[in-house]
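Example 9 (inverse folding). The structure is encoded as follows.
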């Protein structure tokens, strides 16, 4: 059904400001759109071809299996959001993301194909996490999973791989991806407050539990890739800390705009997630199970203690 009442929505001053920011996401997406085929071709010519250490082929294939198929899932999810969101500005922002994700998917595929290193399907935990967000009919859960979980995770891995300069063409290419993905997080921050404010505490708690389910599968997927991260020169712990901090920075902005104070519930969820991280991905220098248990217990009692700063994230 066409949303004929989409212009009949009354808005507060805060809601009007958020709507304006959502519209700007669409227009910036139009202005900053890049032609993937031309950019990839120019970067390959700039660097005189592709230069990947043979020891890195397997790790890149497996890590980018998560990222490439994640971009296809993001393409499908953002199309679902563009259809389901009613306010014009939110619908525009989601539509802009559809084009971005389509570009990301085909460019990553073309890059990996040029390396003769196209991945097969991702691990079962990644597949489950993607399907949970793809299949949920709940619009809040879909937005949270896509914009507030998948996007920060992808941004973190893109940034770390770029900084490591594993392959020069890839490092330059990922700067384009990062600019697009940053706008996508903005869609979640600006569109979610109105939707969450319409929920009661029970629905909001159910959404947080859904969030925890998705995070659980993302953590297990990172565990599967732990050796691959290590081979490329990054630790899973660093990926996690930077990813969680990036999520927290966005989440704090979102929580500050809600009528319902979900910060206590979210803090419990955050401490639970980080405690699990302490068990699965111990800190450097941890000597065994006892250290992991103490670190998890300390997190549950006092909260997360990350050494990474906001600029690094």
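The amino acid assigned to each position is listed next.
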């Amino acid at each position: 059904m066409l949303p004929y009442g989409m212009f009949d929505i009354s808005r507060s001053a805060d809601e009007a400001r958020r709507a304006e920011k959502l519209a700007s996401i669409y227009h910036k997406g139009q202005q900053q759109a890049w032609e993937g085929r031309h950019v990839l071709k120019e970067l390959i010519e700039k660097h005189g071809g592709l230069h990947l250490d043979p020891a890195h082929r397997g790790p890149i294939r497996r890590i980018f299996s998560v990222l490439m198929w994640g971009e296809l899932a993001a393409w499908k999810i953002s199309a679902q959001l563009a259809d389901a969101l009613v306010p014009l500005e939110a619908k525009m922002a989601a539509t802009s993301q559809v084009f971005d994700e389509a570009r990301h998917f085909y460019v990553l595929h073309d890059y990996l194909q040029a390396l003769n290193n196209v991945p097969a399907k991702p691990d079962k935990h990644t597949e489950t996490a993607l399907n949970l967000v793809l299949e949920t009919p709940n619009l809040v859960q879909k937005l949270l999973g896509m914009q507030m979980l998948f996007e920060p995770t992808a941004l973190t891995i893109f940034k770390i791989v770029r900084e490591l300069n594993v392959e020069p063409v890839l490092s330059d290419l990922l700067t384009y991806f990062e600019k697009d993905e940053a706008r996508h997080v903005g869609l979640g921050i600006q569109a979610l407050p109105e939707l969450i404010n319409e929920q009661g505490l029970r629905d909001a708690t159910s959404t947080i539990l859904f969030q925890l389910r998705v995070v659980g599968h993302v953590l297990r997927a990172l565990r599967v890739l732990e050796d691959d991260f290590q081979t490329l020169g990054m630790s899973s712990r660093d990926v996690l800390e930077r990813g969680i901090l990036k999520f927290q920075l966005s989440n704090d902005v979102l929580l500050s705009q809600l009528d319902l104070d979900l910060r206590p519930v979210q803090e419990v969820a955050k401490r639970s997630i980080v405690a699990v991280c302490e068990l699965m991905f111990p800190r450097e220098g941890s000597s065994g199970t006892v250290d992991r248990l103490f670190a998890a217990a300390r997190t549950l009692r006092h909260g997360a203690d990350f050494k990474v700063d906001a600029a690094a994230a």
